[in-house]
Amino acid sequence: MEIVLGLLAVLVVSGLVAAFIAARPRRRNAELEPPSAPPLPPKAENGSAPAAPKPAKARRPQIPSEEELARQAAEVVAEAEAVLAGAREAPVIEPEPGEAPAALKPRFRDRIGKARGLLAGYLGSVRSRTKIDDESWEELEEALIRADVGITATTALLDQLRAQVKAEGIQTSEALVDALKDNLKKRLSIADRTLRIEPGQPNVWLFVGVNGVGKTTTIGKVGHLQIAEGRTVIMAAGDTFRAAAAEQLELWSKRVGATLVRGNEGGDPGAVVFDAVERAAARQTDLVLADTAGRLHTKVNLMEELKKVRRVADKPPGKVTEVLLVIDATTGQNGLVQAKQFTEAVEVTGVVLTKLDGTAKGGIVLAIQNDLGIPIKLVGLGETADDLVPFDPDEFIDALFA
Amino acid sequence: MFDNLSDRFETIFKRMRGRGRMGEAEVDEVLREIRVALLEADVNFKVVKNLVARIKEQCVGAQLSASLSPAQQVIKIVHQELVNALGGENLKITYASKPPTVVMLAGLQGSGKTTACGKLAKWFRSQGRNPILIGCDLQRPAAVEQLRVLGGQAGVPVFSEPTDPESVAHAGLEEARRLGKDVVIVDTAGRLHVDEELMDEARRISAAVSPKYTFLVVDAMTGQDAVNVAESFHATLAIDGVILSKLDGDSRGGAALSVKEVIGRPIAFASVGEKLGDFEAFHPDRMAGRILGMGDVLTLIEKAEQAYDQDEAAAAAEKLQKGSFTLEDFLEQMQQVKKMGPIQNLVGMLPGIPKELKNAEIDEKEIGRIEAIIRSMTPEERREPQIMNGSRRLRVAQGSGTTTNEVNQLLKQFKDMQKMMRMFGKGGGGGKGRPRVPSFG
Q1: The CATH number of B3-85 is which of 3.20.20.370, 2.60.40.3360, 1.20.120.140, 3.40.920.10?
Q2: In this prediction, what percent of chain A has a pLDDT beyond 90?
Q3: Which among B149, B153, B344 has the least Cβ separation from residue A244?
C-alpha cells in the first residue's frame, strides 16, 4: 500500500511539475534562443583587429592552430595518397561525374541479390499458383509484412490491388504479382532523388538519425562519391557525444581525402558545424558534410540541439541544401515514427537506407515515402567506400520481388 | 498507430453485452486486432501466428469473470501469454570456478555492442567483480578508441592491439590472467549474419576465448528480420542470452519477442539510456505491456520503491488524502521525485497522461524555478498559501527571480491539486480514485 500511495504522490508531483512547465513553453523557447546562436563575429568595429573578433571562449576548442592545420593537412594528403594508391584501379575513384553512377548501377542488383532469398520464395509460390485464391492473397500479405512494409501499408496496398483485380479482370497469379510490383514502383518513382548542390556557397548536408544506423560511415562514403565527382569536401565531426566518433570520421576523412573539422568531445556540435562552414567559405570548398550524434527521436532536448545545429549551419555563408535521414534497413515500424519526428525537427529532405546487404528488406521506406513524401536518395550495400549507390525504385522493387 | 488496445476491444465487446461468454465471432474479431497490434509492434510474422493460435485456445469459451470486462479479460490473457513467451527462465549470471569468466558480445553493425560492453563492465563492477574489456573490433574505424573511452568511464582497463581479432582475443585473455581479472568482456566487430567470412571469424574468436556467456545484442527497433539475425548468430555462436539495446526509444520492441521465440534464450539485459548506468535486468511483464502499447507503471513503481523512504511516503500520502498536503510537503516530495530520474522520463511512464503533457519539454532547470518560488515563501505561507496577497506574491517573485505570473500559476495549480487530492481521499485507500490505469498496470 505504501508504494501505491507513494506512487500517488509521484503522480501528483510530477503531474504538477509537468503542467507548470508545459503551461509556459514560450518562455522556454525564448530562453533557448540566445545561446543557440552560433559564435557569430560581432559587428566589425572600426579598427578592431581582424583576427580577434570571435568570442574566444566558444571558438578555442574547435579551431586548431595554424601549425596544427598544416600538420593535419599534410597528414591528410599523405594518408589519402597511401589509401588511394591501393584503390586507384577502382573505376569509382576516377573523377568522371557522368560515369560514376552508371558504373555503380549494376552493383545494386548484385548486392541485394544476396538478400532476395526469402521473399522470392514467397512470391515464387504465389506465381506458381494457377489461379488467384485466398492463399495467394495471404502469401502476398506475408511477403510484404516480412519485408517490414507494415501491416497498415500492406492492408492498404492489397485492398487497392483487390479493386484492381476486379476492375481489370486480372486472372493469373503472374499478372497479380506484376500488378503489385508496378503499383509499388509507381508509388516510389514520383520523387526527386538528386542531391542538391547550389553554386556559390558552402552547401551543408546534414546527416541525422537514431543511434547506430551508420551516419558516420555514410558520410565517409558520400564524401568519397562527391570527391570522385570532383567536388571539394569538408567533414564536420558534429557527433561530439559518442566516444571516439570524431576519430572514426577522421579516419574516413583521411581515407577519402576530405578535410576534417572537429571539436572537443562533449563540445557544442553547432560550433563545430559553424566552424566547418566558415572554413569552407574561406577555402571555397563546395560541400560540408556534417555528422551529428545519433539520437533517439524521443529525446526532446537532443532534438532541440539538432534544430539548433541546423539553424547554425544554415546561417550565411553556409546553406543547408540536404538533410539526410539515415535509416537502417533492419528497422521495423519505428522507422516511420523516426522519419516523422526528424522531419518535424529539421525538415528531412531525403533518406539514406543503410545495411541493405543483409536479409532485411527495408520495406519501411515505402511508408516513409508514401506517408511523408520523403524520397529515398541513397542505399548502402556494403562496407567499402563505393558501396553507397543512388536509390533506384525499379531495382529496389525488382530485387525484392525477383 | 495503435495507442490503446483495450479501447479497441471495448468497442468490439459492446456488441456482445449481456452474454456471459465470448462467441467464436467475437473471438475472431479480437484476434484480428491482436494480430495487427503485434505486427505493428514488429513481432515476427511467424511468431505472431503461433501466439495468436495459443491465445485463441484460451479465449474460446473462456468464462467471463464478474470483476473484469471482457476486453480487460482478453487483454489479460494476451498479456499473460506475452509474459510467458518473453520470460520463462531468467538468466542468472554465475561465475566460472576457474576465473576469468569470459563474456562475449556479438551482433549486427550499429546494434550497440561497444556501448553494451561498457555498460556490462560497469554492471559487473557493481556486482563486486573486477572486469577487463577486450576490443576485438578492429574493423570499424576508432571502435577500440570508443571502447577505451567507455572503459575509462567505467573504471575498467581495456586491452587491444592492432593485429587480428583472434590474436587480440588470445592475448587479451592472457592479459586478464596476468592482471588477475575475474571477468573478461570481449567486444567484437559488427557483422552481417549472411557474411560467412565474418561469421567464421566470430566463431574463431569464440573458440579462442571459450566464453561462458555469449550475448547477442539486438536493437529494440529491429523489424521482421530479427529472427533471421538471431537464428544465424545462434547457429554460429550458441547464444546464451540477449541484450536488448535502445529500449529508451518509443519502439514497441516486438523484436524481443521474436528473438526469444526463435532461439529460446532469455533476454538478460535491457539498455535504457545513453549513460553507462542505464542498464538493467529485463522485465518480461513490462515488455509485454510495452508491446501491447500500455504505460510502464511497473517501472515507475520500482523506481519509487528505490527512491522513497517507505514511512515518509506513507506519511505524505496520508496528508494527501486528508487534504493537508502543504507546499512544504510538496517541496519535500519533489526532492524524492528528483531522485527517481528525469521528470520527463517519469511522466512518460504514467498511464493516462495527455499527450501534450507527455511531449512537453521538461527542463530540469524549470524544477529549480519551482523550488525557488517555494523556498522564497515563509514557512507560514507554505502552510497556508491562501494568505498570499499581492505584495507577498511580488516579494516571492522578486526573491526567486521569477515573475508574479509564475507565482500565481504555481499557487493556482497547487490549489487545484489539493482539491483533486481531497477527492482521492474520499475515494478511500488511495487505490480507487487513482488516475485511470490499464487493467494490470
Answers
A1: 1.20.120.140
A2: 47
A3: B149
